[in-house]
Amino acid sequence: MAAKITTFEPPSSASSDSECGETQADFSEVFPDYEAEEEKSGNFYNTPASPITVPYCARPPSAGSQKSPKARRQRTTSINKSSKQTASESVLRTQHRTIYTAGRPPWYNSAGQQVEPFVIGICGGSASGKTTVAAKIIAALDMPWVTLLSMDSFYKVLNEKQHHMAHDNEYNFDHPDAFDFDILVSTLQRLKEGRKVEVPIYNFVTHAREARTKTMYGANVIIFEGILAFYGTKLLNVLDMKIFVDTDADIRLARRLRRDISQRGRELDGVIKQYTNMVQPSFNHYIAPLMTHADIIVPRGGENEVAIHLIVQHVHAQLQLRGFKLREELAHSYVGQSLPETVHLLPTTPQIRGLHTFIRNKDTPRDEFIFYSKRLIRLVIEYTLSLMAFVEKTVETPQGVLYNGKRMATNKICGVSILRAGETMEQAVCDVYKDIRIGKILIQTNFSTGEPELFYLRLPKDIKDYKVILMDATVATGAAAMMAIRVLLDHDVPESNILIVSLLMAESGVHSIAYAFPEVQIVTSAIDPEVNDKFYVMPGIGNFGDRYFGTEPSGE
Ligand SMILES: Nc1ncnc2c1ncn2[C@@H]1O[C@H](COP(=O)(O)OP(=O)(O)O)[C@@H](O)[C@H]1O
Ligand SMILES: Nc1ccn([C@@H]2O[C@H](COP(=O)(O)O)[C@@H](O)[C@H]2O)c(=O)n1
């Protein structure tokens, strides 16, 4: 009778668009010029202050000159209403699988739960200065991850008759019926949940939505502006702060004349006709009464520096309330608790301890460090595959005898490395799982806040359908691993499909991950008891990336 053994059979229908070759990419491949990126559309982390801000392409220290955080912010918050469409197009170019962010701080708490963004609604008459006020708030907030959503994006699609009316300045764009409130409310609600949304792009010249949409994704602050931004309880319920911009009607008309003629392709007579017959009456009937819902009324719009200052102070206070020092909190939790059931620790054999002895020894030369790390990584990755589900598979041997074996139940497994140390594990995954697709997430510690920040991600298409082997060489507090897991969840990967795999983890990191994400499987070859005040595992390995790549320690 044939013995039953478990084999790692490569899936017969492994995807032919394998990206395993990419895993050898150096940073120049991983961080190509932004303009050069031509990837398929897919998951998206919107850049700060999109959709009307030209995205900032963050680069790692090794890939050219590093801009200061201040300089980055200045680029990410420059808003120019007159270039609304041009800027939207810039954002559209970002609908690739490769995403750059300006260093997104955590958007979840220590329990892995998302922290809701603070949503500001800005209501007011046409050309009252809503967008100008929004831009001033964004500039004064001086922080990344502010998103501006305009109600204009939700104008309904017109039929032919309505189109003719619009051309003759006879269609009422200022009546609530002109807007698609269902899509508007659900878009705002999804954004508030930190979900990805596709926002229609509206063209004021053609009175129509463009075929393309712009993708937006989460933010710490969302600003929503529009003439009917407070219309209906569903909208009001989403807003955390309601601002009404109150500008005199004659000023609004003067601004609108100038803007509609210069930017929206209109004629003087047509603007006056539309304004007199529809804009002003609708303002009186629908928009002005909404002022009663306002928390703050801003006379004179963007000129009102005092009002903007007060608003910004309030937003900062609210963000403070939602904020937290994630890494610090994680480092000091869960001391002395028993290990969670989701932890899979490789058997501590003499062989494993021997490999650890080499890589933990501070005197091990770099070539030996790499050699023994690779051996240990290979064992950890093989062990990870052994945790996958297997099904019966019978084959015929060359002797014509049946052999009852096993094959992996799924062929949908991909790897995602947390750059930079996790990249060292990619080769082992490629070696043991043929044609595996590899994604990358760059998370760096901000040395002034101590928090992890998300800079870059590139994930395999349809990752939600895959088991994901998430790789980082070491896990200390678990902050970076949690951010990466959060990214995967935000891309609809089921929690139970994620395995976080490391050579070495600190006990507190294991507990933090397990507490926040109880269904994530945790695989490692050793668990050390402590994390020091620089968030290194103790006794540890030191900085794995620096030792493996031979780089100088930086920033600490
Ligand atoms: N305080 C101001 N002084 C002069 N022009 C302004 C001022 N605020 C806004 N504008 C101009 O008026 C027009 C409408 O302003 P905007 O902020 O886009 O209003 P809204 O978003 O309410 O339609 C724009 O062309 C803008 O440049
Ligand atoms: N096709 C369209 C759609 C809308 N309008 C006018 O735009 C105004 C709202 O935009 P603001 O930036 O001024 O808030 C609204 O008053 C509509 O009359 C348009 O003219 N054509």
TrEMBL record:
Signal peptide (from-to): none
CC annotations in GO: cytoplasm; nucleus
Localization, UniProt: Cytoplasm; Nucleus
Domain (Phosphoribulokinase/uridine kinase) ranges: 119-307
Region (Disordered), start-end ranges: 1-92
UniProt-listed Enzyme Commission number(s): 2.7.1.48
Pfam families membership: PRK, UPRTase
Biased composition (Polar residues): 9-18, 76-92
Top-rank taxon: Eukaryota
This protein's UniProt keywords: ATP-binding, Cytoplasm, Kinase, Nucleotide-binding, Nucleus, Phosphoprotein, Transferase, Ubl conjugation
Main location, first listed in the record: cytoplasm
Reactions catalysed according to its record: cytidine + ATP = CMP + ADP + H(+); uridine + ATP = UMP + ADP + H(+)
Phosphoribosyltransferase domain mapped to chain residues: 347-551
Any GO MF annotation of the entry: uridine kinase activity
Pathway(s) where this gene product acts: Pyrimidine metabolism; UMP biosynthesis via salvage pathway; UMP from uridine: step 1/1; Pyrimidine metabolism; CTP biosynthesis via salvage pathway; CTP from cytidine: step 1/3
BP-aspect Gene Ontology terms: pyrimidine-containing compound salvage
Record carries keyword Membrane: no
Subunit structure: Interacts with RNF19B.
Family, per entry: Belongs to the uridine kinase family.
NCBIfam families according to UniProt: PRK00129.1 (NF001097), PRK05480.1 (NF004018), udk (TIGR00235)
Role: May contribute to UTP accumulation needed for blast transformation and proliferation.
Name by which UniProt lists this protein: Uridine kinase
